[in-house]
Design a protein that fits this description.
By secondary structure, this protein is of the alpha+beta class. It has helices spanning 26-37, 59-70, 100-113, 132-143, 181-190, 197-210, 216-225, 228-231, 270-273, 275-284; strands at residues 2-4, 12-19, 44-54, 76-78, 86-93, 118-128, 149-153, 239-241, 257-259, 265-267, 290-295, 298-302, 308-311. It has ten helices and 13 strands. The strands form three sheets. Strands 1, 2, 3, 4, 5, 6 and 7 form a seven-stranded antiparallel beta sheet that branches. A three-stranded antiparallel beta sheet has the order 8-10-9, with no helix packed on it.
């Protein structure tokens, strides 16, 4: 555990927590296997969680945070010096990227000590058997997403936590009203909107009606709202299905399904007609521990007569504006 201090800035304290040396490090074992699959001979590895804490904290308070909050004394320890032949890589979030673990640690420190601090978390990797260039390649391919992370060669211990810089606002309009079909699809592709032609033409028609071009923020907002990630276009879509050979399924009596005379099937809203339909069918048959399902953004089931369990599953369907990570 070390500290760094700069003039006119709060002290940034650094705590690195690793699995005890005599215990298996699952993250390191997975990294070694993944590296071998990529053709990189990584002899050994050790990983650690890094906490950068910015604030006016005494040594005794820092020890309390370390021992009572951040370290599991059964399986973890404050890290010691890395092997002399290890290459060090650390991965930390870029300024402005949400860091839920850091927010939780800051809240816990406030509850524990009554002081408010700023926190950033990261991961440390000590790699043996690879060059610096190989380690940085592994970091880019396996350990980080450079859209949201910064990769550091060596120990990262700044004098103050990285912060974003202000950007001058510039109102930008995107020409769309006069584009032909090819132009609309080019805008969708290179603007990372990931919308099909029908959707692009709908947007175009709306702004032709409004008599102006959309701003870049308006266009991005529409695209994100219509993305698979937010609206689940595929799950909620109408599906035309035709079975062949032994794959035929008896759709008779299934909800939300139209059977055509030619044998093809129309599934109206894939989610409601399959997963949701099966759940509600079970409820109709007497299943009584589902308190709230397919409502709002989570499902609630009964655990016992006094307790319920809220189950939340976050989906990351693509394509989205930026490919999801983690």
């Amino acid at each position: 555990m070390t500290t760094a201090q700069a003039a006119d800035a709060p002290t940034v304290h650094r705590i690195a927590v690793a699995v005890r040396q005599n215990l298996r490090d699952p993250a390191a074992a997975r990294l070694i296997a993944d590296a071998q699959n990529l053709g990189t001979k990584l002899e050994s590895a050790r990983t650690a969680k890094v906490y950068l804490i910015e604030g006016d904290i005494s040594d005794s308070q820092l020890s309390t945070i370390r021992d009572e909050l951040l370290i599991d004394p059964v399986t973890e320890a404050d890290t010691s010096e890395s092997p002399s032949d290890a290459v060090i890589i650390e991965v930390h979030p870029l300024p402005g990227v949400t860091d839920p673990a850091a927010a939780s640690v800051a809240d816990a420190i406030e509850s524990l000590l009554g002081i408010r601090v700023a926190v950033q978390t990261g991961r440390r990797y000590e790699l043996v058997g690879v060059t610096q260039a190989e380690a940085e390649s592994l970091a880019t391919r396996l350990l980080a997403n450079t859209v949201v992370h910064r990769i550091h060669a060596g120990t990262f211990h700044p004098a103050e936590l990285p912060k974003g810089s202000p950007t001058a606002f510039e109102l930008t309009h995107v020409p769309i009203r006069e584009l032909d079909d090819a132009g609309l699809m080019d805008l969708s592709k290179h603007g990372h909107l990931f919308l099909d032609l029908t959707e692009m033409k709908s947007i175009q028609t709306e702004y032709q009606t409004l008599g102006r071009e959309p701003t870049n923020i308006e266009l991005e907002t529409i695209a994100q709202t219509w993305s698979e990630h937010c609206v689940h276009k595929t799950l909620k879509s109408t599906v035309r299905y035709r079975a062949e050979g032994d794959d035929a399924i008896d759709w008779t009596g299934r909800p939300g399904v139209d059977i055509n005379t030619d044998g093809s099937i129309i599934i109206n809203n894939l989610l409601k007609s399959t997963v949701a339909a099966a759940t509600f069918e079970l409820i109709e048959q007497g299943l009584d521990w589902t308190l709230s399902v397919f409502v709002d953004n989570a499902g609630i089931i009964q655990f016992d007569s006094n307790t319920a369990v809220c189950v939340k599953v976050e989906t990351h369907n693509r394509p989205s504006a930026i490919e999801p990570y983690g």
